[in-house]
Design goal:
There is one protein chain. The chain has 141 residues and is an alpha/beta fold. Helices cover 41% and strands 17% of the residues. It has six helices and six strands, in the order H-H-E-H-H-E-H-E-E-H-E-E. Strands 1-2 form a two-stranded parallel ribbon. Strands 3-4 form a two-stranded antiparallel sheet. A hairpin with an 8-residue loop joins strand 3 and strand 4. It is globular and about 45 Å long.
């Protein structure tokens, strides 16, 4: 999402990964499904049709779309919605705070299943994906 809508929010590490010519950047089909849903609901507005948008983004950023495969589907069926509480840094006056990580989002579970089945790291700033580290998900940001 940041890559397309607000690249200035990408982390330094994310920029290094995305700009490394030797790194293949893979986008799960679940990402495109989620974007299509947001376009359909009017949350995202596009000047072109959605198919043209996906094609243009893939070419512009050198992205490969990973189609759903039986291994990802199998992984999805094994994933359980998980919640965990982590301690995160807060402002210096109040000290650390607790944050509940939730994995209730169906698209997020598809993304996790896809990344785990392909054995590739997942690039995201979303702390909620940390709830899946026990499943083998490697998160980078």
């Amino acid at each position: 999402d940041y890559l397309v809508r607000d690249p200035s929010r990408l982390s330094h590490n994310a920029l290094l990964i995305l700009n490394d010519a030797d790194t293949e950047c893979v986008v799960s089909m679940a990402t495109w499904w989620e974007w299509a849903e947001k376009v359909r609901e009017g949350q995202y507005m596009l000047r072109a049709d959605f198919g043209a948008f996906v094609t243009r983004m893939s070419k512009s950023f050198g992205l490969t779309t990973a189609e759903m495969n039986p291994q990802a589907m199998n992984e999805f069926t094994r994933l359980q919605a998980v919640n965990q509480t982590i301690e995160v840094a807060a402002d210096s006056k109040s000290g650390p705070a607790n944050q509940l990580l939730s994995s209730e989002n169906i698209y997020n579970r598809w993304l996790v299943a896809h990344a785990v089945s392909l054995e590739i790291p997942f690039l995201t700033p979303d702390l909620n994906f940390g709830a899946y580290k026990k499943t083998g998900l490697k998160v980078l940001w």
